[in-house]
Amino acid sequence: MDHINQTKLLLSYITFFFLVISTCRSSDTIAVFQNISDGETIVSANARFELGFFTPGNSKNRYLGIWFMNTSSQTVAWVANRETPLTDNSGVVKLDSQGNLTLVNGSGKVIWSSNSSVYGSNINLVAQLLDTGNLVVKNGNITNSDSYIWQSFDYPGDTFLSGMKLGKNFITGKETYMTSWRSDDDPSPGEYTLKFLMVKGKYQQVYIMRSSVIETRIGPFNGISFSGRSLLTPGPSYPPYVGYMIVSQNEMYFTTVSKYNTSTSFARTMITPNGKREISLLEFSKREWTTINSLPVDYCDNYGVCGPYGSCNIANSPYCGCLKGFEQKNSNETSVDNATSGCKRSIALDCGPGEGFLNFSSMKLPDTANAVYKNNMSLLDCEVACKNNCSCTAYANPNITPGGNGCLLWFGDLIDVRVYPQNGQDLYVRLAASELSDLKSSSHKKKGVIMGVSLSVAAVLTLSSILLAFYIRKKWKKRSDADIEGRPEKSLDKDYKSSSHQMGSAAVQLFSLLEVSQATDDFSADNKLGEGGFGPVYKGVLEGQVIAVKRLSKSSGQGLVEFENEVICIAKLQHRNLVKLLGYCIQGDEKMLIYEYMPNKSLDSFLFDESRKSLLDWPQRYHIIQGIARGLLYLHQDSRLKVVHRDLKAGNILLDRHMHPKISDFGLARMIKEDENESNTKRVVGTLGYIPPEYAIDGLYSVKSDIYSFGVLVLEIVSGKKNRSFVHEDHDDNLLGHAWRLYKQGRSVDLVDECLRASYSASEVVQSVHVGLLCVQHRVEDRPNTPTVVGMLGGEGSLPSSPKKPAFFAPESEINSTTSNLPLLSSSSFNGITLSQVDGR
Ligand code: ACK
Description:
Blueprint: H1 3-16, E1 32-33, E2 35-37, E3 41-43, E4 49-54, E5 63-68, E6 76-79, E7 92-95, E8 101-104, E9 110-113, E10 125-129, E11 135-139, E12 148-151, E13 159-160, E14 165-169, E15 175-176, E16 178-183, E17 186-196, E18 206-210, E19 213-218, E20 241-247, E21 251-258, E22 265-271, E23 277-283, E24 288-295, E25 310-312, E26 320-322, E27 326-328, E28 343-345, E29 356-364, E30 371-374, H2 379-388, E31 392-396, E32 407-411, E33 417-419, E34 425-431, H3 433-446, H4 454-481, H5 494-498, E35 509-510, H6 513-519, E36 528-532, E37 535-542, E38 545-551, H7 560-572, E39 581-587, E40 590-596, H8 604-607, H9 618-638, E41 642-644, E42 653-655, E43 661-663, E44 670-672, E45 679-680, E46 683-686, H10 693-698, E47 700-701, H11 703-719, H12 735-744, H13 762-775, H14 786-793, H15 812-818, E48 829-830, E49 833-837
Parallel strand pairs: 25-33, 35-39, 46-49
Antiparallel strand pairs: 1-10, 2-7, 3-4, 4-5, 5-6, 7-8, 8-9, 10-11, 11-12, 13-22, 14-15, 14-21, 16-17, 17-18, 18-19, 20-21, 22-23, 23-24, 25-26, 27-28, 29-33, 29-34, 30-32, 31-32, 31-34, 36-37, 37-38, 38-40, 39-40, 41-44, 42-43, 45-47, 48-49
The protein binds 2',3'- cyclic AMP.
């Protein structure tokens, strides 16, 4: 501290001595005050900051503010009365007996107040200017220095200092951000703000905005610095501070910790009246500010300047280009630099198996407003998560510090991407299979591996594959029309025949074993998708289309009848919530069903897998519940046939590229007559946990059997728990019993899957549990019919009757040991009814 400052501090001390509250700690005493009048100032303990009245630039107005000490020209860090200046020299600052810091003008009018009233006894009110530049009101009796009644750091102006927080408090909804001055002469809020995007579930980043328009984007914070922002220039006191991004349930904010104690300078960040974000250092020895980083600096810093999927590179001319695999959207736009419409994919995505990701290194990550953030995920998990969701366009690791993990998944357009060698990072962008192989081969070409003839070879290959595809199509058509090898010889399902439908008339194709074998690479283990109740399922490619082949094992329970049944049934049914059968193969002992491939596989592969369940958020789950209900409505009522599925379960719900649900596996389905309400069978089939009592005991099935299974499924989707294996630890209830108990206590929302606790719609959860419980009622007549279920889930009308105690209330173990009249729960025979347990999962 130099001599002049020591003198100044002493003066401040003398001026305010009679006002100072005696309980202050000795080192801070001089910065504590009760009143300041014009011409007087308060200096912080180590003479870093000064508080008092000032007049900016050429203005005639006066303001109460905090400025840095030891600067050759006055640098203001904070202003109290930004919008209500004093127009003469008459102001007084007071700390009143309620804890309000007020600025009163010459006529005694309060023109600014901290609005920080506190009530209570034993409060020793103190106002104090800290050495960090923070003006605080606190209870001097409390030694905890962080417990402030009010602090100026909560109300930043155009300057950010270490210790401030920029972000959002989710409890109060309060956002803290920086606002520029209107001009150098006028500290009132100007046009520019510097704001962190703080949205739960999204990843933070910074916008510089002019009113409501984004001018420049900084970030996201990658654990070290902001992605795509130039690094601070290393110097003697580098780095001047360390930044932290704090993310919790209640708040998200960015803060920094200054290193000024160990250095010879002090840093500040400000947003200037013309919208520049500047980081500067005050070097104590020089008393001058040096700007060490500013933004925007170049053309590429203009937000989204190259449009969606465009990439800006300041080293190129023109600056804008398209990411590899993309091309200019509007070829009429003469220069890419003026192309606001950006770029489009050269080859559209089809979510096929060969689709993958191209690594673009040294990139500023795209705008995270379109991204979802998942913590605790490795880069590999992140890739899997992106690949499994066909709407995911890119992924990246948000935290590049050693050991840092997490996953950023982009959905929709990639905006504001730039090449940034200095401080960029890896971005993995989804591209079509053929695009990737083209890029690979062109990179090989560059390496001299592929010679100049490759283009003509590709052209010849394309031409010959088109011809081949034509030929195969013709051949298949011929086959389905004629009686050839592989055609089923035996008769089909009786009902089907009697209704005079023929397999040949169904819109499914017949394939030979050879064709299916070639499509699946000879049923290779690599192509195996999993094992279903009746045998393995393989992935393959037929006629350029990705398929799933269900190969019925010889030992499986599904005989020719079930097989034919499934072919006929599903071939006749076309609905967006039913999986589409493309063809079949029957040759010798082999029976196979060929389906459209569902890239996101089955619902249970998400729902009951701890590492994947969080990928299924509540809106998706609710959408899935509604989709299954609509599929059921079609089966039960709207289709030409009245079909009871009889094996509705999570494993038989497949998810397409958009996570739309499709009911699959019609091997056990039965067509029933229009006027028929119930049918009887001696062979009870289905999956434990989903079978209703009347079917298990009396072999009676109806559309209400599917409604029961649907109810179980809804409760499983809400809770993420499998009905069959769930036993509540406190009272041994099974899932239905647990849901019922919570419902009775008015706590249906507590059933929701723990991984969804942060975000779900309580009303939709309550509604789903209500519907689920109605569907699993013991008595068939107490269960709603399918149109009612769809109506209730669509929010039409109020929910009807309250559910009663559901069927199979007690845990399975208990039922097994004590209830002999529920034979289905063991796989043995009872009254001539046998349960074929068909749970392959
Ligand atoms: O849960 P998953 O991965 O999805 O495992 C099962 C497995 O085969 C046995 O049923 C998967 N699977 C069945 N049909 C299809 C399909 N059409 N597309 C993709 N995967 C399927 C199912």
